[in-house]
Amino acid sequence: MADLQEAKIVGTPALDGRYISEMDMWPLECQEFNRLYQFYDNLREGRFTTTKCKKCGHIAFPPGVICPRCWSEELEWVDLTQRAKVVTFTETQAGAPLGFPPPLILAWLNFGKDSPIKHLLVRIINCAEGELKEGDEVKLVVFEVPAHPIEVKRETKVCNRVYYAFEPVKSASM
Ligand SMILES: [Zn+2]
Questions:
Q1: If you measure from the C-alpha of residue 63 to the centroid of ligand 1, how many angstroms do you get, rounded to a whole number?
Q2: How far does the centroid of ligand 1 lie from the alpha carbon of residue 57, in Å?
Q3: Residue 32 domain-assigned?
Q4: Per the confidence metrics, is the pTM higher than 0.85?
Q5: 19 in helix, strand or coil?
Q6: Does the residue 137 lie in any domain?
Q7: CA of 71 to the centre of ligand 1 (A)
Q8: How far is ligand 1, taken at its centre, from the CA of residue 152, in Å?
Q9: Structural domains counted in the chain
C-alpha cells in the first residue's frame, strides 16, 4: 500500500529511467533473435542502411528479409543518405509517452531527389523546445539504448543495443 501511495505514476514502475521489460520499446538486435541484425550492426559503425532487392532493384525502408515488390529473398545492404530537410513536424511538449523526454519531436523528412528513399518519418532529438523550423537540415544520430539480457543455449548473453534518430545540423558558429 505504501509503495502504491509513493508511486507518482500508478502501475508504471518508472524509476531512474528504468521500466519493466514488458514495456521495452526497443527491438532485440542480436543475430540470434533478429534477422535484420545487420541494420543495427551497420548503425554501430555509423552507417544508415536498408535492403535492396538484387532481382528488381527495389529499395525499401524499413529493411526487410523479403522484397515487398517481387517477393525475392535475394537482398543486399545499401547505404542511405544521412542528411535531410524537415518538411513538417509535430512537437509534443507535455504528456509524451514514458521513455520519451519532452519535447518529443516527430518530423517528416525530405532526403532529396537523388536519394532512393525520398521521405521518412523520424524522431528528432538533441533539439530544444521551439527550436526546430520547417526547412531545417537534420542529420543521422545513433545512440545507445538499454542493453537486454537474452538466453542463448542456456547461457545469458547481454544484447547491447543502439537506435537512430535525427538531430539538427548546427552551424559552425553555434
Ligand atoms: Zn524485388
A1: 13
A2: 6
A3: yes
A4: no
A5: coil
A6: yes
A7: 6
A8: 33
A9: 1
What is the share, in percent, of the chain residues with pLDDT greater than 70? 85
In this prediction, residue 2 carries a pLDDT of: 41
Name the residue type at position 9: I
Q: Is residue 9 part of a domain?
A: no
**Interval between CA 102 and ligand 1 midpoint (Å):** 40
C-alpha cell at 168: 539538427
Q: What is the C-alpha to C-alpha distance for residues 42 and 164, in angstroms, rounded to an integer?
A: 11
Strand ordering across the sheet containing 59-60: 59-60, 49-53, 75-79
Average pLDDT, integer, range 157-172? 88
The string of pLDDT tens digits covering residues 88-132 is 999 999 988 877 889 999 999 999 998 989 999 999 999 999 999
Could you list the residue range(s) of the whole structural domain that residue 30 is in?
25-168
Distance CA 29, CA 16 (A): 24
Q: Is 75 within the bounds of a domain?
A: yes
